[in-house]
Amino acid sequence: MALQYVGLDDINGSLVVLDHVKNASNEEMVEFVLKDGTKRTGRVAEIEGEKCVIQVFEGTRGLSLTNTKTRLIGEPMKLPLSMEMLGRVFNGAGKPIDGLGDLYAEKSADINGQPLNPVSRVYPQNYINTGISSIDALTTLIRGQKLPIFSGSGLPHNQLAVQIVKNARVANDDQGFAVVFAAMGVTNDVANYFRRSFEEAGVMDRTVLFLNLSNDPIVERTLTPRCALTAAEYLAFEHDMHVLVVYTDITSYCEALREYSSSKGEIPGRKGYPGYLYSDLASLYERAGISKYAKGSVTQIPILTMPNNDITHPVPDLTGYITEGQITLDADLNAQGIYPPVGVLPSLSRLMKDGIGEGFTRADHQDCANQLFACYAHVQDVKSLTSVIGEDELSDTDKKYMEFGRLFEQHFLNQGDENRSIEETLDLGWNLLSVLPRSALDRVDNKVLDQFYDHEKAVKTFGLKEDHIIKELQK
């Protein structure tokens, strides 16, 4: 028989204190009944003996110390799950907000998830095509991977997130593919932009959308990514779908966690964030993966904005320790009008080598990526030299590198909203490499060069004029 407690011992912000509570559990759900009969929900945030600190989701305004009735539900927060979730829009706590009524649930699951046995994990292989050359070729997203996007203030990470959701697909179309998208702490116009973009692109039927607005309770913001991941695990491990989870902005989530921790009176850590921020982020990121007991997979792209573009800030710093690489957006490229402004050199996908090549993308993928990366890195060295001696004093080879760098940024990075296949991306990469003298391509075997190096084609494609430089260098 469930007990109902009448009255509260204290109200502090969004927290209430209830004393003489027996057998309460951490994160147990709580129901409040106000004097006028309206109901609110909460969650046990802290337990000290028989004293419970409860976070109220809808806020404490209107609660009475004497008349409020409290009932402990006896279980943690659960999310109703069904295949009908596809195409629906929910708030940060998993309640439908699209006007289509409640979800007919096949089951409910704890939003904190079930631990995936390390023995049952399958090493991530094969890739998800995002349609973006700089990601697909140089920082390939592998199924089951967690690959964050490091952005900054004013950079187009929302636009990039929408483009990834619109273009993403898996190689074998016979298996289901779905996207779970979660937005945390966004304004109404940004939320409407996400929703409208997915509907106009015709991908809403394969998308589950969670929207937490900036004026919603902060505790709801801390639940949003967990609700999204619970939905993803259901689709992947019970319906054998490949699921891509995109959630933004992790920094908003961490700031909500900091405020929540401060309201409980916890001792702050670095920059005021709670000391358990690392383990809390790990509890989200580590829910990506593949189980040998299911055919599906959960792949994550968390997006975070770095305060003051500081990569040593606690949020990107801890994220980098847990995840398998990062995609970094570059403010200088964005200032030049290049979209998407992916900074190639600081970006990395640690699992890329095991999910590309013959049988996955194309046999020449690794060679092309290695050479593009090496050449673009050399371009930065030449730019540094140019700032000292001027471009006119550069050697003929270095001038070709400068030309390669300009073409690489204009044609490879700056693709706009175009959706490129992996074949188109790699062919474009070889075209760009063919701008350089063949002798400069020292990361590729001669057999591969014989197949893909074609300087005359590059001259025609990019309208080059100084072809005599290459001829002189190749004599």
From TrEMBL:
Any idea where the ATP synthase A/B type C-terminal domain is? 354-453
Q: Where is the ATPase F1/V1/A1 complex alpha/beta subunit N-terminal domain?
A: 11-65
Gene Ontology terms, MF aspect: ATP binding; proton-transporting ATP synthase activity, rotational mechanism; proton-transporting ATPase activity, rotational mechanism
Q: Which SUPFAM superfamilies match?
A: C-terminal domain of alpha and beta subunits of F1 ATP synthase, P-loop containing nucleoside triphosphate hydrolases
Please list the residue ranges annotated as the ATPase F1/V1/A1 complex alpha/beta subunit nucleotide-binding domain.
Answer: 131-349
Function statement: Produces ATP from ADP in the presence of a proton gradient across the membrane. The V-type beta chain is a regulatory subunit.
Instruction: Give the family, as the similarity comment puts it.
Output: Belongs to the ATPase alpha/beta chains family.
Please report the name of this protein according to its UniProt entry: V-type ATP synthase beta chain
Q: What is the lineage of its organism?
A: Bacteria, Bacillati, Bacillota, Erysipelotrichia, Erysipelotrichales
Q: Which gene encodes it?
A: atpB
